[in-house]
Amino acid sequence: MAKYDVTKSIDVRGEVCPVPDVETKRALKKMKAGEILEVWIDYAMSKERIPEAVKNLGHEVLEIEETGTSEWKIYIKVK
Amino acid sequence: MAWTGLLIGVIFGIILQRGRVCFNSAFRDILLFKDNYLWKLGFLAVGLQAITVLFVAQMGWIRIAPPTLNFFSNIVGAYIFGLGMVLAGGCASGVTYRAGEGMTTAMFGAVFYGLGALAMRSGIFSGIRTWAAGFNITVAGNSPVYFDKVGPTLATIFNINPWIPAVIVAVLLLWYTLGTKTTDRPTKFNWKVAAIALAILSPIAWITSVAAGRNYGLGITGGWISIFDTFISNQPLRWDGYEIIGIIIGALIASLLAKEFKLRMPKNPKTYLQVMVGGIMMGAGANLAGGCNIGHFLTGLPTLAISSIVASIFLILGNWTMAYILYRK
């Protein structure tokens, strides 16, 4: 069922700015190369900002999947 | 004519929502994430308005009222405001428009923002404000574009035509914002479009607000106080009170159309306590300082008021302090 072999998943729906961005960064720091992080968000600005920030850190954004009304899952491969 | 605030507010709310214009993020991101996207949006809007607002004043449609200088209030109030906005998860305009997007934490932040401002204006904190008012500094406006008595500006200090510093500041900010590298962000309503839209809306806000008897441009703090004055003391809603209602409606419409509206709730209830404390700090700080990130930064800086320059520096420092404490690692 799962699209990717997700190593870690964080659910930051409903959190205030910039908790989703910061939690993503914190999770990525603890992970090893090749592992996949799934970030569950529900704020449109996060969908625009997190992938850019993640790319700047050198990681790969595999997909931004729409999972519902104003809800997305971002899949990130750690580099 | 106070109802014109509603129209201005709706347009303002749409721009804030579509442009994701959050000053809390703008100030913080440049420090924490080395992301200058919203930071530049803010400064481009300020640079353009230095010209557009002065233009409508030159035409005689408004007289600019740069905020009163008070080193104590501007510094302390703005710093507390800056600390509070990080806790509240948004600046004054940020929590207002996000309330319209269905962010429940922003609704709490915004209501407590209004309560904090009310407490500083006429409630439990008002003693501080009254005491600090003894240090208010105003000067005679040195140009017909100004009111007779104004807070000092770059133009009054050097006793020069207001166009000289306005053009210099506008050129410097345009050169900085357009001439240096900007962080990418995939959005249809990009930072330049949003800044230009704000620079066009701002002088219209001044004109309609002045026509309603309120001598200022876009603002948030006074509007929330007006809403409480109406709600609690049955006073007529003022221009800026209508503007706040407009912002919420505008953000609601824009987010519904973009399918971005959703009632959002954090999992940890502690977040509500955090935004309520942040909201009180922001409101009290903004009322003491004589303006928030909109009143002082977006609207005050383009008038080149010294008070707004001082307040903007300290609200950014407050934001950086709290962002560093909470989110540096």
From TrEMBL, chain A:
Annotated InterPro entries: TusA-like (IPR001455), TusA-like_sf (IPR036868)
PROSITE patterns assigned: UPF0033
Name of protein: UPF0033 domain-containing protein
Domain UPF0033: 10-34
Similarity section: Belongs to the sulfur carrier protein TusA family.
Species for this entry: Mesotoga infera
Pfam families: TusA (PF01206)
